[in-house]
Structure formats: structure tokens, C-alpha cells
């Protein structure tokens, strides 16, 4: 909604954004909004605090649909809507990114090099979502075109018929555009450059298992099965989570073959000791596939605190 700030720092919010959750919001919506705030704290230096009388703040409402103005318009109170069916973690971070002026600006050169827009099949009133900009008025923060961006529209965005509204010049990326599961690598680069972030508020460790040292992780003492660094697995994932099914054999992940073990066998993968940046509860996020396992197999997450030798289980997933 509204205007789109491009090369103008006046429309940036402060790094700590005051917010007010309107009484119209459902309980579930409020919980999802809190989770979305935490996503930003974990991966950027952007924070959110309850409104305490500041002149400029965001008011999150249950309006008509899911929308946000782009950037800080200096209205004082600025609304952001999490309407019906918008209270999902796949939707809220997307709208918050609009608020912070991170937006997919479609430029003339993009339409030539990366995507084709079939604007004749757009639903009535949605033409503004595909406004085109000249390259010299957009600020892409020196990041490459990103098909996997959380901000990229999907192939069927705002369509009024069966034909796609967006077609990628490289056909393989048709299955990639429109993902809302998480920030992409370049989403984070752009946000952190927009807000001059040099470190996140709460993040401590990230590992994509691309390096041979697997981020300093080691096989735990006393295990009987080893974790293996692979790019694909027989009867298992064909690629890592980043590439999903679009690029089989690309990207690395850790794999343990439970079919070669016996009842009671276990494999331990241990990180280095991590020192929290804050006193609140800590968050752990990872992607897993257990489709190739056997019934009764269990994936567990354990924590060792301080100098203790005791491993405390904090999460477990059982099944195949």
C-alpha cells in the first residue's frame, strides 16, 4: 500500500520500532506477531518495543487483508494490517519487511533479464503491485537478483485466470519464487545494509554445512553411528533445504543412516559451547527430514549447561 521509498533514507525507521497491538487482533495473531519480531531480532539489529508515547509508531490492526505501507511515512501512528487468514508466520514477516522499506522493486532491466510479467492476467486493482521503476531510482543494496527472496511474488500472485502472472526467464526457478518460509541470504544482506547492522541482536551461530569443518561440530563421544556430510541421500532428501527440489544434488546437509544401526544405536553431533547474548529464552531453528528413517527412530535435541556432563533433552521427534 501507499508509496514506495527507494533511494531515500528519510523513510527508514529507527532500529528500535515502537508498536501497539490493537484490541481487534485475535490472540493467535498476537502470538504470531511476537514470533515474527523474534525472527528479526535473531537475524538483524532491528528490534521492536511496546509503544510508550513515542510520536512515530506502528499500530498493528485486524484490517481488511494483509498489508503494510512501505517505509516510515512519518504519519505518527502508522497502521499495518494482519487481517483474517493473515495470522501465519509465512505472512507477518513479509509485511514487516514492507514496513522497513525492504520491497521487491521491479525495474526495467529485471523484466529483461530475470522475469517476464504477464500483466494482462492481473486481478482488477492489483496493477500497483507490479509498478515498474527505472534502475537509477531503486536501491538494491548491491545484492544479486534473488529468486528465493521472501519478498518475491509467486508465479500465481494476484492472477485472475489460470495463466501465471510472473514467468522466470530460467524455468527451474518457477518452483522457487514466492517462498515464505524464511528470509533468504540476500534478504538479510539487504535488510542489514539498509539499517547498517553489523551484528544481530540475539543470533549466535549459523551453519549451512557447506564447509568441510561443518562449523566446528564434532561427533559426540559414545555414539555408535556417524553423521555424514552429503549433498543427497538414497531414499532421503535429493538436496538441502535451501534448494529443495529445484536443484537436486546442490547444497550440503548432515545425514545419518539409521538402517545400518541396531536397536539402541545412536549418533551424536555436538556443537561448540555457545554463550547467550541475553537472558531470555534461547531459540534454535533447523530443518529436518525423517522420511527415510524407520519407525521408532528418534531425532533429539539435547543441551549441556555450563560444566555439567548431563545432557538434557529439550525436543524429540519420533517416527518415520
UniProtKB/TrEMBL annotation:
Keywords: Hydrolase, Membrane, Metal-binding, Metalloprotease, Protease, Transmembrane, Transmembrane helix, Zinc. Pfam families: Astacin, MAM. Its EC number is 3.4.24.-. It comes from the Eukaryota. Residues 205-320 form the MAM domain. GO terms for cellular component: membrane. It is an enzyme of class 3 (hydrolase). GO terms for molecular function: metalloendopeptidase activity; zinc ion binding. Coiled coil: none annotated. Residues 4-198 form the Peptidase M12A domain. Binds 1 zinc ion per subunit. One of its GO terms (biological process) is proteolysis. Its cofactor is Zn(2+). The chain crosses the membrane at residues 103-124. This is Metalloendopeptidase. It comes from Petromyzon marinus.
Amino acid at each position: 500500500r501507499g508509496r514506495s521509498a527507494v533511494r531515500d533514507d528519510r523513510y527508514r525507521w529507527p532500529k528500535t520500532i515502537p508498536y501497539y497491538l490493537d484490541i481487534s487482533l485475535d490472540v493467535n495473531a498476537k502470538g504470531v506477531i511476537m514470533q515474527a519480531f523474534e525472527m528479526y531480532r535473531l537475524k538483524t539489529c532491528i528490534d521492536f518495543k511496546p509503544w510508550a508515547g513515542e510520536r512515530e509508531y506502528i499500530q498493528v490492526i485486524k484490517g481488511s487483508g494483509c498489508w503494510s505501507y512501505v517505509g516510515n511515512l512519518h504519519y505518527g501512528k502508522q497502521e499495518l494490517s494482519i487481517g483474517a487468514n493473515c495470522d501465519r508466520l509465512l505472512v507477518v514477516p513479509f509485511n514487516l519487511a514492507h514496513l522497513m522499506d525492504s520491497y521487491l522493486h521491479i525495474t526495467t532491466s529485471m523484466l529483461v533479464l530475470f522475469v517476464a510479467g504477464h500483466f494482462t492476467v492481473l486481478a482488477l486493482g492489483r496493477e500497483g503491485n507490479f509498478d515498474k521503476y527505472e534502475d537509477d531510482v531503486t536501491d538494491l543494496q548491491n545484492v544479486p537478483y534473488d529468486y528465493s527472496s521472501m519478498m518475491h511474488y509467486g508465479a500465481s500472485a494476484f492472477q485472475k485466470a489460470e495463466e501465471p502472472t510472473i514467468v522466470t526467464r530460467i524455468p527451474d526457478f518457477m518452483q522457487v519464487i514466492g517462498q515464505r518460509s524464511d528470509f533468504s541470504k540476500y534478504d538479510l544482506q539487504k535488510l542489514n545494509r539498509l539499517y547498517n547492522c553489523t551484528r544481530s541482536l540475539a543470533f549466535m551461530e549459523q551453519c549451512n554445512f557447506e564447509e568441510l569443518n561443518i562449523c566446528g561440530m564434532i561427533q559426540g563421544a559414545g555414539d555408535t553411528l556417524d553423521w555424514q556430510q552429503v549433498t543427497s541421500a538414497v531414499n532421503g532428501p535429493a538436496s538441502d533445504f535451501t534448494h529443495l527440489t529445484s536443484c537436486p544434488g546442490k547444497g550440503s546437509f548432515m545425514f545419518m543412516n539409521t538402517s545400518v544401526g541396531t536397536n539402541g544405536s545412536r549418533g551424536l553431533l555436538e556443537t561448540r559451547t555457545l554463550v547467550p547474548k541475553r537472558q531470555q529464552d534461547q531459540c534454535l531453528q533447523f530443518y529436518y527430514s525423517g522420511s527415510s528413517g524407520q519407525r521408532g527412530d528418534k531425532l533429539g535435541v539435547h543441551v549441556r549447561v555450563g560444566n555439567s556432563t548431563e545432557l538434557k533433552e529439550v525436543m524429540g521427534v519420533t517416527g518415520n
